Amino acid sequence: MAKRNRRVGYGxxxxxxxxxxxxxxxxxxxxxxxxxxxxxxSSVVQATLVSDVTATDQAQYAQEARARAAQRQAExxxxxxxxxxxxxxxQQQAAQREAAAExxxxxxxxxxxxxxxxxxxxxxxxxxxxxxxxxRQAEREKQQAEAEAEKQRQVExxxxQAEAEAEKKRQAExxxxQAEAEAEKKRQAExxxxQAEAEAEKKRQAExxxxKAEAEAEKKRQAExxxxKAAAEAEKKRQAExxxxKAAAEAxxxxxxxxxxxxxxxxxxxxIANAQQSDQAxxxxxxxxxxxxxxxxxxxxxxxxxxxxxxxxxLGPSGELLAASITRSSGNPSFDRSAxxxxxxxxxxxxxxxxxxxxxxxxRDFNLKFTPGDIQ
Length: 376
Description:
This protein is an alpha+beta fold. 73% of the residues lie in helices and 6% in strands.
């Protein structure tokens, strides 16, 4: 009796394959969330993450998922048909059972690979989504940075504007202070001008007072001078009177001396007449001259006994004095002047006319020697 072929069971592999396909179909048909919760941020700019998957993309994904599902269903139907055919042929083709099992295993591996590929695609999609999210986050951060930079720029601009306002205010204050300083300077200049004018007025008044005082002093001086002049005139008049009186006295004295001299000469004439020699007559004339001069000689108070002065006397034919000059000075001008004045006061010597012609020529030019004690 031929050995009955043992029927190979395919139920468990088929169930596993169907389960794998269902799981893959479910994973494929899962829709991505429309949006993700917006992370809380403490920054000024807030952004909401919006999915970049549009409705058209969703419809396309759904269509693709349905197509894949239909394909998988067709494949499953074909597989079921193949399994049924395999079951029918299992008994006839034992050798093909292992091949079918291997094929099923290979198909399972393929499906597993497909599932892994799908998972890889999903992972890649997730990576792309993460990359897009990272790009959006970077864009948001860039926008936030730009917003912060703009805010900082506005703050800087506001600071600069505040500084400009402060600078403008400071300049206004400086301009005000400068204007006040100019006003103060002008006021001080006005005060200085007024003070200078007051000083000038004071100086002018002082000059006027000085001129007035000088005029008073000049007036007083003129009065003093007039008084002195009047006193001088009076003194001059008094001196003139005294000179007149003195001249009268001198004239009287001279007249008396002349009379005395005349008397002496008369007496001397008589003696001369009685003289026998001309020398005696000449000596008599000289003695007369000496006595006349001695009577007119006023010796200065400061005259020393050792002074000697010689006076040259020149007479005219009638005995008038032509000149009396110092031929030997005593060194004392007062003494010399008193000697010449005495000769001038004693002249003229009229007795010369009474001498002989020869004696007259002799005694018209002679010298008199004056010493404090004697005249020679």
